[in-house]
Amino acid sequence: MLYNNSMSRPSRNQDKKMLDVGKQLFRKKGFSGLTIMEVCHQAGVNQGMFVYYFKNKDNFSRIVFAEVYKEFFDELKAPESIGTPLDQLRQAIKTIAKYVARNKDLFKSIMRDVLSGEKEVQNIIKKHAPKDLKYMFALIDRCQKEGYIRKDVSKFEVFSMIQAIPMSIFPIIMGDSKADKILDAVGMKERSVDKLIDARFDILLKGLKR
Q: Does the pTM of the predicted model rise above 0.85?
């Protein structure tokens, strides 16, 4: 059990309040900016109850990340019953890009924590990242088996090329104020993330089809 939620119903509401506040703060400040004091203050709970339920900040952070990650992964898998494996792969790329766009502060905070050497953050990411990688590799495998993508290109190579698609429009995804000027300078008028990803995905497919 990740945390103690065995108390009576009114007390169980306190752990939910702290987790809800924790997710909000985590999206804005990342792990390093998350403090027990602020979580308890915003949730209206004393720090003794925090210790009772979660023991310490590291354990609380692991639970918060697991819940945030589940929300992302559920969204990533949402279109898996729609269309062909290729349609699902295309949509997965868009889902990742849009999730990052909606959670810019979260993404920046995680990157900041990783680059600053936060060991707990690195360990948590290592634990969860393989799940979405496994899902993406499974989609690529289905695309190859059903003839949408050549089999002579390794799944890792395909994934690396697909991963480069959202990275190529990263300034737009992150809402960089300089992005419009850069795009205007190179004559690129399109700003829709969906259309930009579609265009790059179609170009990539030309080299990956049989």
A: no
